[in-house]
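Hello forum,

I keep getting stuck at the same step: I have a sequence, I want structure tokens, and every attempt I make locally crashes halfway through. Rather than fight my setup again tonight, could one of you with a working pipeline run this one for me? It's a single chain of 64 residues.
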Amino acid sequence: MAWYRAYFLNGKRHISDVEEFKSGSDELAMVQARDLLAQRREHFAFELWQEARPVYLDPQKRAV
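Reply #2:
Ran it on my machine without issues. Output:
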């Protein structure tokens, strides 16, 4: 099990909240992060990191 951080992005694609959790794999962490995002009406996207390693970066944020 590894620690992950999900950074939640607001409508302007700025980080406005973070949640840390443990997961058994990157794939399971992505599912957990998506579930967490679905519970947050004020957030529109997320980025997922495992320590200093990016697991998933919001493609819209990089395009801005």
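The longest helix spans residues 26-38. If your local run keeps crashing, start a new thread with the error log.
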